[in-house]
Design brief:
Rossmann fold; 11 strands; CoA transferase; transferase; three-stranded parallel β-sheet
Length: about 400
């Protein structure tokens, strides 16, 4: 979540410095790669960033971080509170270097609770936030989403929180600490539609949105494949039933009005599934488009680059990395009329920018060379320094 949040900020124009341990971020060792430390995940999550590898357990490593913080707008970390305390990376300590600093922290549970230091990753958060058990209401057993939804949802919360806090700091001159607990964020995310009748005290209806929590809410088979057909308005349903050859269903008391349709959604969608089989996917897409009924074929993400819309929008961009060769990047999908989002810096090798960043923070060439020599910092080594000239 931290790398994704800061990738978004980098896409939007922030100068993002990634502070990594000497052996690198964990994602540098996960998945496909051409060279050590430069995995597929790294190429996308670390785009538009610079990398410095610091040993924060060394006093001089922590001192270097404090120097970087002096000129920073925001520091984002998903280290747990105990680790932050042990390393001296707290808002109280770092704000001494920079009163305008925003420190945005994120871990499974709130920093203000007894669970603050509990270890957790995406599956744990899906379980603890109620997401995993929602499928039990539909299919009779709990399950996890087939993607790291908690990490990515919380990452977007982090980006929004950081931008809001930085805007205030630039207005008032005062920074602040911002905590974005994963479980809190996902509970709020899950309850947007599912709190339902339990919004009221006492409840005025059932928990959960009945349109969503039904087993028949799934793509439908057609005569030659699959489709998502989703009539929504009253007119959509009248048109769809007419196209399916059963116009009388529009006046069926089970389906006539939106709130009643939602209560009978499982039966309604089962009926759609039976009707969908009588035409091909392309036939349905053409008919639905003509009558403005929401419908879509199913995108195969494994072949995403072949999709016409993806190509038109350039959502999967082929670029050339200086050391890793050709690869595809998926930038943040926002269109700005004046400040377009783009790839301005390829993902760096571990510590690729260490010397540059330290020099920018005011370290002399000799001091930089000394930090490298003592393994306080790692990465691309600076040129040898003549101490008499330094």
């Amino acid at each position: 979540m931290g790398p994704y949040a800061t990738a978004v900020l980098g896409d939007l124009g922030a100068d993002v410095v990634k502070v990594e341990p000497l052996d690198g971020d964990m994602t540098r060792g996960i998945g496909a790669r051409r060279h050590a430390g430069m995995t597929a995940m790294t190429l996308n999550l670390q785009r538009n960033k610079r990398s410095i590898a610091l040993n924060l357990r060394e006093p001089d490593g922590l001192a270097a971080l404090r120097r970087l913080v002096e000129d920073a707008d925001v520091i984002v970390t998903n280290l747990r509170p105990r680790s932050r305390e042990r390393l001296g990376i707290t808002y109280e300590a770092l704000s001494e270097c920079n009163p305008r600093l925003v420190m945005c922290t994120a871990q499974a549970y709130s920093s203000r609770t007894e669970l603050a230091d509990s270890p957790a990753y995406d599956d744990i958060v899906q379980a603890a936030s109620g997401a995993a058990l929602l499928t039990d209401r539909v299919y009779g057993q709990p399950s996890y989403a087939p993607y790291v939804i908690a990490d990515k949802v919380v990452a977007l919360h982090i980006a929004v929180a950081a931008l809001a806090a930085v805007l205030r700091a630039r207005t008032t001159g005062r920074g602040q600490s911002v905590d974005v607990p994963m479980v809190d964020a996902m509970i709020a995310f899950n309850l947007v539609e599912h709190l339902g009748g339990h919004t009221f005290d006492p409840p005025e209806g059932d928990f959960g949105w009945s349109r969503i929590l039904v087993a028949e809410r799934r793509p439908h088979r057609t005569a030659d494949g699959w489709i998502c057909i989703m009539p929504y308005s009253d007119q959509n349903w009248r048109d769809f039933f007419a196209l399916a050859g059963q116009p009388e269903l529009a006046d069926d008391p089970r389906f006539r009005e939106v709130n009643v349709r939602h209560r009978n959604m499982n039966e309604l969608l089962a009926t759609v599934g039976q009707m969908a089989r009588h035409r091909t996917t392309d036939e349905w897409l053409e008919l639905c488009a003509k009558h403005e009924i929401p419908a879509s074929e199913l995108l195969d993400l494994a072949a995403v680059g072949e999709d016409d819309y993806v190509r038109e929008r350039n959502l999967l961009r082929s670029v050339e990395h200086p050391s890793e060769g050709r690869y595809f990047v998926t930038p943040t999908p926002m269109d700005f009329s004046e400040t377009p989002v783009g790839l301005t810096r390829h993902a760096p090798r571990l510590g690729e920018n260490s010397a540059e960043i330290l020099a920018q923070a005011g370290y002399s060439p000799g001091e930089v060379a000394d930090l490298f020599a003592r393994n306080v910092v790692a990465g691309d080594h600076p040129a040898p320094v003549n101490e008499e000239c330094a």
